[in-house]
């Protein structure tokens, strides 16, 4: 593995008195796609939100590009070349596609805006066609494209994707995973992917982690985890 761009060591997080994360150790190397899989309620989305500072980690440390960001406020983390496409997409439904993309670009002061807009329209031609359309009127797949494109407008080094295939038709989900692979291979973008679709996520990822009840229970190469009987039994049997 390359030097870690993102590193979590012994991270715990709580909602009130309930421990959502229980001593999580995890690394994402520069230029890698790393995926975190697990059942609903395992703590995957909480982990992603904790990296972004909400909720803050109670114990342990989170290091990004050699800097300890454990206690850094969320709005400052967003300026460190980390971008997140959250679960449920959370685009601005009343804003147009173009206005949503401007919100992503605002983080770096609209530097290279035209160049970046051309780039995301090249990746997602459908968004160019819908540039003046309100985000809330797009299909689920188009909204997911917009959420990822908005994140890319800030020129991140690390892209964090939370359940990008959730609620999408299989063909559209496949298209989203294909874009993630292209961004990684062509641009060297580092991707941390939280995903319930274990088959596609592990097939795509260089490495993966399995989370159960707030703890990492398994880790290894993506293909290696795909072959593990316990992973197949828990996440892959009964269809892909």
Work out the count of structural domains. Answer: 2
CATH homology group of the largest domain: P-loop containing nucleotide triphosphate hydrolases
* Annotated CATH architecture of the largest domain: 3-Layer(aba) Sandwich
Q: How many DSSP H or I helices?
A: 10
Biggest sheet character? 6 strands, mixed
Predict the CATH topology of the largest domain.
Rossmann fold
Can you tell me the residue ranges where pLDDT is under 50 for at least 5 consecutive residues? none
Q: Into which percent range does the helicity of residues fall?
A: 25-40%
Class from secondary-structure proportions: alpha/beta
Instruction: Estimate the strand proportion.
Output: 25-35%
Q: Using the CA coordinates, give the radius of gyration.
A: 17 Å
Q: Give the strand tally.
A: 10
Family: Belongs to the ABC transporter superfamily.
Protein name: ABC transporter ATP-binding protein
InterPro entries: AAA+_ATPase, ABC_branched_ATPase_LivF/BraG, ABC_transporter-like_ATP-bd, ABC_transporter-like_CS, BCAA_Transport_ATP-bd_LivF, P-loop_NTPase
Domain ABC transporter: 6-238
Describe the fold and architecture.
The protein has 10 helices and 10 strands. It is globular and about 45 Å long. β9 and β10 (215-221) form a beta hairpin. The chain has helices at residues 44-51, 74-77, 97-105, 113-123, 125-129, 140-152, 170-187, 198-204, 222-227, 229-236, and strands spanning 4-15, 18-29, 33-37, 59-64, 67-68, 82-85, 158-162, 190-194, 207-212, 215-221. The chain folds into 2 domains: 1-81 and 158-240, P-loop containing nucleotide triphosphate hydrolases (Rossmann fold), CATH 3.40.50.300; 88-156, no CATH class. α3 runs parallel beside α6 (140-152). It is 37% helix and 27% strand. It has 240 residues and is an alpha/beta fold. The mean pLDDT is 91. The strands form 2 sheets. It has a 6-stranded mixed β-sheet, sandwiched between helices. A 4-stranded antiparallel β-sheet has the order 2-1-4-5, covered by helices on one side. It starts with a strand and ends with a helix.
């Amino acid at each position: 593995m390359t030097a870690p761009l993102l590193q979590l060591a012994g991270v715990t997080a709580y909602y009130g008195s309930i421990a959502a994360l229980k001593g999580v150790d995890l690394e994402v190397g520069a230029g890698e796609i790393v995926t975190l899989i697990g059942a609903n309620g395992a703590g995957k989305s909480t982990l992603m939100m904790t990296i972004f500072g909400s909720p803050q980690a109670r114990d342990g440390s989170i290091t990004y590009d050699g800097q300890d960001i454990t206690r850094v406020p969320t709005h400052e983390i967003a300026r460190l070349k980390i971008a997140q496409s959250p679960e449920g997409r959370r685009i601005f439904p009343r804003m147009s596609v173009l206005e949503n993309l401007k919100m992503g670009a605002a983080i770096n002061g609209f530097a290279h805006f035209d160049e970046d807009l051309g780039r995301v329209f090249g990746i997602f031609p459908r968004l160019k066609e819908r540039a003046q359309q309100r985000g809330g009127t797009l299909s689920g797949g188009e909204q997911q494209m917009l959420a990822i494109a908005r994140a890319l407008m800030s020129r991140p080094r690390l892209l964090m994707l939370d359940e990008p295939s959730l609620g999408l038709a299989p063909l559209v989900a496949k298209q989203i995973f294909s874009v993630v692979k292209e961004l990684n291979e062509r641009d060297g973008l580092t991707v941390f992917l939280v995903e319930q679709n274990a088959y596609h996520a592990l097939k795509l990822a260089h490495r993966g982690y399995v989370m159960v009840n707030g703890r990492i229970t398994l880790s290894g190469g993506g293909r290696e985890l795909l072959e593990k009987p316990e992973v197949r039994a828990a996440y892959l049997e009964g269809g892909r």
